[in-house]
Amino acid sequence: MSNTASQDILTEVRERLSAKVTQWDQISGRRVYIRIEKGDLLEVARYLFFEKGARFCTASGVDMRDAMEIVYHFSFDGIGCVLSMKVQIAKPALEVESLAQLFRAAEWVEREIHELLGITFLHHPNLKHLLLDDDWPEGDYPLRRYPNE
User: Fold this and answer.
1) Sign of dihedral through CA atoms 79, 33, 44, 115?
2) Which is nearest to 100 in space by CA: 134, 130, 79?
3) What is the pLDDT of residue 1?
4) SS3 label, residue 124
């Protein structure tokens, strides 16, 4: 699909989400990063997935020292565009709504982020261990930065 079609969809998304997006960075015609508040996560994801037909690809978590950041990646396959949505979660209250409530594709990656960074995904259907042994020490998160690091 043409770059014009890509721009049309991105313009529509930007206009619709203008009240929710606190930062919009368009790296190229087909690569966009947005920042939203964690309270808007379900609404924005629902819009992208169900109304705009964006496919949920994956999510990644990053320890930013004072907060955790989750980056949710959505692909508009028909136009070759990827929109990544960033949500920061302030420490120490590391809780955010689970996207698995909307689509099952988020289940395993949220389990992975929970296990490795210690973020709790509210209303997730099953936050049991995915990668680590079941006897892994509670509260020990392999990818988390600790204050003295």
Assistant:
1) positive
2) 130
3) 46
4) coil
* One-letter amino acid of 73: H
Domains of the chain: 3-91 (3.30.460.80)
The answer to whether residues 49 and 64 touch, using CB atoms and an 8 Å cutoff, is: no
Q: What six digits make up the tokens of 15?
A: 């206009």
Concatenated DSSP letters for 38-76? Answer: GGGHHHHHHIIIIIS-PEEEEEEEEE-SSEEEEEEEEEE
What pLDDT was estimated at residue 148? 62
Both tokens of 139, joined, read 């509260």
Question: Cβ contacts of residue 60 below 8 Å, gap of 6+?
Answer: 70, 71, 73, 113
What are the tens digits of pLDDT across the range 43-71?
A: 999 999 999 999 999 999 999 989 999 99
pTM: 0.92
